[in-house]
Amino acid sequence: MNSSRRQFLARTAAGAAVIAGGTTFTTSQAVAGPKHVTALTNVTVIDVATGRRDRNQTVLIGGDRIIGVGRHLPVPRGAVELDFTGKFVIPGLADMHVHSIGDERVSPPLYLANGVTTVREMAGTNPALYDWRDRIENGTLLGPRMVVASNIIDGDPTLWDPNLIQVIVVGDEPSARAAVRRVKAEGADFVKVYSRLSPPSYAAILDEARKTGLTVHGHGPDQLTSQQVSNAGQRSIEHIHSLGLAVSTWEVEVRRMIADITVKPGDYNSWFRQLHPIEWFAANTFSRARAADVFGTLRRNRTRVTPTLTMHSVLDRPDYATLDPALAKYLSADAVFTYDYALETLYKANRPAEEIARQHEMWAWRQRFVRELFAYDVPILAGTDTGTPYSVPGFALHDELELLVGAGATTRQALYAATVEPARFLGLRDDLGSVEPRKVADLVVLDADPLQDIRNTRRIHTVITRGRVISPTARQRLLADVEAAVKEPPTAATIPAGGCC
Ligand SMILES: [Zn+2]
Question: Which CATH architecture has domain 1-501?
Answer without folding.
Answer: Alpha-Beta Barrel (3.20)
